[in-house]
Design a protein that fits this description.
By secondary structure, this protein is mostly beta strands. Helix content is 7%, strand content 46%. The radius of gyration is 18 Å and the shape is globular. The N terminus is likely disordered.
Amino acid sequence: MSGSESQSQSPFRPVRRVVTGHTAGGKSTVVSDTVQPPTFWSPESISPIYNLSHTSESPAVIDSEITQGKWVDEIAQNTEHVSKNGSVFRMFEFSPGTVSPAHRTVSLDYGIVVKGSMVLELDDGERITLNEGDTVVQRGTMHTWRNESTEWARICFVVLGAKPVEINGEKLGEEWRK
């Protein structure tokens, strides 16, 4: 299924991304106002992922339109899940019944459910239902996201690079399971 066919199944309107910046004279301005195209977990997935922002360092460089003469859209050049020394801003839509791959990233993730409900399942079997407006602070744990409802859900994350969790001398790195 192509991205446009998949996206047509989502009940949400397209994701508009507005990015602000500065003119050479120091005035605030909009440097980009676009509809962000989705990506997907896999070719057969109907649940879109929107990569909205990426920074490669912290503190972030936020004046490229002045220093380089044009706005540099780092997300267009970086689709990695975690920016080791920076940040990633991403939105996920989960169709009913969707289950993410079990995974761990070396990151600190701030999430908020903006529509619907999602079940966070940890590798010890614990399950937590997060409803609209609920937040999660994900700290490098192995987990799966599940939409067990009959409605679509939307969740947003800000992902910050972190030091790996170390247990008994073993560092827990990024891991993806099928």
